[in-house]
Amino acid sequence: MTAIETSSIELTAAPVEAPAASVALTDTAAVKVRALLDQEGRDDLRLRIAVQPGGCSGLQYQLFFDERSLDGDLELDVQGVPLVVDRMSAPYLGGATVDFTDTIEQQGFTIDNPNASNGCACGNSFCG
After folding, report:
1. Which end of the chain has less neighbouring CB within 10 Å, N or C?
2. What three-state secondary structure class fits 90?
3. Tens digit of pLDDT for each residue in 70-105?
4. Are 35 and 108 contacting, i.e. CB atoms less than 8 angstroms apart?
């Protein structure tokens, strides 16, 4: 597994009306993920997006390359990027858009998540 990014989020409950099948990648993020996958030189890797306990607000995003298939995984192909979301994270990620920013001030993946109602001072946390 290759770690890409971890950022914190907070949700009080998983929304049931937003399925993870609506996770999107911007064109910029898709190009960057495909380039990173090409650098890995393996055909069995997929981008895994997960929500895990931790961070300053209770939960955090995890993005990493993974070759595993877990029971209940939702497997997607988004703009030619193989993407997988575990069944526990899926309700938190419905409608989310992954972007990649590369500026003098910031570089990395960001997630615009409509399930977030506000953020914290670190810029990586939110509550739902």
Report:
1. N
2. helix
3. 999 999 999 999 999 999 888 888 899 999 998 999
4. no
